[in-house]
Design brief:
three-stranded antiparallel β-sheet; two-stranded antiparallel ribbon; 13% strand; globular
Length: 239
């Protein structure tokens, strides 16, 4: 059962209900396809959806990162997703957009974390901003790929969940999962499968950095989110 916890998320759920059933037929991993949607319910005070159950546990709750074995299927799923999106596909103000549109938020977040770490991350952010932006047609993106939205059974990746941020945009957004959820071997395998350009790989690092900084600054009161953020930033500084 998918129940928005914020009024703003009702729009995201509606997008998921509209677009995910057709996309699911092409994605190379199980996803929680919406089966039933109620636009207004007094039971929950808004909309909700019943979705197909996906087996597995969130990657971060098993205390792991995706290695090469899990990153291979993830790469195939990303390739199967990134078809050109139609003109009426949803867009998101934070996901899939040029990195320069996230610059102010990232720099404000960096001011809230320890200076030595922030200085190193600023240099990485500057490099990412210098990469040529995406100029092709908008591609379908999940928009929020991190360990909480990847289900695993042992070392096997079993599903990708939480498609509320599904949107049209720069496919480098989803490649940020190389740092949000993968270890070094997983990053190498993901890059081998997806075969991005160097510019896309650099933009992916920028998206990962923006995500990590948000998790440890803006969303720092949630210990689970904060842990995901610090793991992401550590992976960036190590790579």
């Amino acid at each position: 059962m998918r129940v928005p916890r914020r009024a703003e998320a009702e729009v995201l759920l509606a997008n998921e209900v509209r677009w995910l059933p057709s996309l699911a037929r092409t994605i190379a991993l199980p996803v929680p396809v919406p089966l039933w949607f109620i636009e207004r319910s007094d039971l929950v005070g808004g909309s909700f959806a019943i979705v197909r159950w996906c087996a597995g546990r969130p990657l971060d709750l098993v205390g792991s990162r995706l290695g090469a074995e899990g990153a291979g299927p993830l790469g195939e799923a990303l390739l199967s997703l990134r078809a050109p999106a139609p003109e009426d596909a949803p867009v998101n103000p934070y996901r899939g957009v040029p990195l320069e549109q996230r610059d102010a938020r990232v720099r404000a977040g960096l001011d809230l974390i320890p200076r030595r770490t922030a200085d190193r991350l600023r240099a990485r952010w500057t490099d990412a901003l210098a990469a040529p932006p995406w100029t092709g047609p908008g591609r379908w993106i999940h928009g929020d790929l991190h360990p909480g939205n990847l289900l695993v059974d042992g070392s096997d990746l079993t599903a990708i969940i939480d498609w509320g941020d599904l949107a049209s945009g720069d496919p480098a957004t989803d490649l940020s999962v190389a740092w949000t959820a993968c270890d070094a071997s997983g990053r190498r395998r993901l890059r081998e499968v997806v075969r991005p350009t160097d510019e896309e790989w650099t933009r992916a690092q920028g998206n990962a950095l923006a995500h990590g900084v948000a998790c440890v600054s803006v969303l720092r009161d949630d210990p689970r989110v904060r842990a995901i953020g610090w793991a992401t930033l550590a992976g960036l500084l190590e790579s």
